[in-house]
Design a protein that fits this description.
This protein is of the alpha+beta class. Helices cover about 15% and strands about 40% of the residues.
């Protein structure tokens, strides 16, 4: 009996001290996910604490004072990032277009500077596509005196395109033109309005603003691998037709543009459409000199260099025009039915996400031409 009393007297203070120490530690470290008996176990284990509490008649109910651990919550930002990663982009990146003559089907905001140098245009007033009916003809609003049958020209284009939404954009293009007549149809060098003018000399080099263009693009379908786009372009007679700088009439040009990525390196782009003159000039008999023109283009490209920040792709393009109506001063006056086909060879280099440069050369492969040769250089900045 004395031993039992002695054991109880010695063990009771030690048990009470250990119990108070465990409770104080639990109170000092509250929080979700904490184990309410973690510190008790460090003083002797769960079983020992339970036995001690029973022996002393104390039931602290520590577990009931602590809330159940909650599962971790996924933040809204993490969910939105996963959604954004899984969502397919609305269209291919703008630098994906590698063509230089076919209009690109990709809708986006960009600024472009383009320079053309064309050589040996032998019928510049054909269907009033380049400039209006020769002023040597009665009532012709084009350059005079003389009917040119060989003209070299250069054109500098400034184009801006803005896409307020993913599949729609508006654009405008301002061209500056220079022309240099090289030769004239014999006997027309001093002809004005069908009459010979003594002492008159054929018109000389001209330069100035040409016909301004504006329009819009609407992507029917768009993804990272393909894009089908409707484009509408309008031409405004801002160039002086009497100097060969414009057509002296309005024109509209609807077309369909297509981009298809065939593999990681191969892509093909195409265009089909029509050019329609509005209020072109007429002959003395009332015949329309301007005529409708159907056109088409096709261009595959292959990325020889396909790095994250640098891409280099040669591209070959075939572009053709079929004249549906209209007249010309050169040779037979009827221009309808004439086919013109050009082969274009060039390469485009893209660097970064915004910059692209194209250089190419075009060669006529038909007898009828808008030009026999053409050289094109272009810089494009997308944003």
């Amino acid at each position: 009996m004395r031993r039992l009393i002695l054991i109880l007297i010695v063990s009771l203070p030690i048990t009470l001290i250990a119990q108070q120490t465990g409770l104080s530690r639990v109170k000092e470290q509250p929080g979700l996910g904490a184990s309410p008996l973690g510190d008790v176990s460090s003083t002797g284990g769960l079983a020992e604490a339970s036995m001690t509490s029973s022996a002393s008649g104390i039931s602290p109910s520590v577990a009931e004072s602590q809330p159940d651990p909650q599962p971790p919550q996924t933040s809204k930002s993490t969910q939105s990032q996963k959604t954004a990663t899984a969502k397919e982009p609305s269209g291919p990146p703008l630098e994906g277009s590698m063509v230089g003559y076919v209009d690109d089907a990709i809708v986006g905001s960009q600024f472009r500077i383009r320079f053309d140098a064309g050589f040996k245009d032998n019928a510049p007033d054909r269907a009033e596509f380049f400039y209006p009916q020769c002023g040597c003809n009665p009532g012709g609003p084009g350059p005079r005196p003389g009917a040119a049958n060989n003209i070299n020209f250069q054109q500098l284009y400034f184009q801006g395109e803005y896409a307020p939404v993913g599949r729609f954009s508006v654009f405008t293009e301002v061209p500056i033109r220079w022309i240099q007549p090289q030769s004239f149809i014999p006997g027309t060098e001093n002809v004005v309005n069908g009459m010979h003018v003594t002492g008159a000399s054929p018109f000389s080099n001209q330069s100035g603003i040409s016909d301004v263009r504006a329009g819009f693009k609407l992507a029917v379908t768009a993804s990272s691998n393909h894009s089908l786009t409707f484009q509408f372009k309008a031409y405004f007679p801002s160039g002086d037709g009497s100097r060969g700088l414009g057509t002296a009439h309005y024109s509209i040009e609807p077309s369909l543009l297509y981009y298809q990525r065939l593999s990681e390196r191969w892509a093909v782009e195409s265009q089909i459409g029509g050019w329609h003159p509005i209020n072109g000039s007429t002959t003395s008999t009332g015949a329309d000199y301007a005529g409708d023109i159907f056109f088409y283009g096709f261009g595959p490209s292959y990325q020889l260099v396909n790095r994250e920040n640098v891409k280099f792709a040669p591209v070959v393009e075939l572009f053709g025009w079929h004249v549906l109506g209209g007249l010309q001063t050169l040779g037979t006056s009827d221009a309808s039915g004439i086919n013109i086909v050009n082969l274009k060879v060039g390469a485009r280099t893209s660097f970064g996400r915004h910059n692209s440069v194209y250089v190419g050369f075009g060669q006529a492969v038909t007898h009828s031409v808008w030009y026999e040769h053409i050289v094109r250089a272009e810089y494009r900045y997308s944003f």
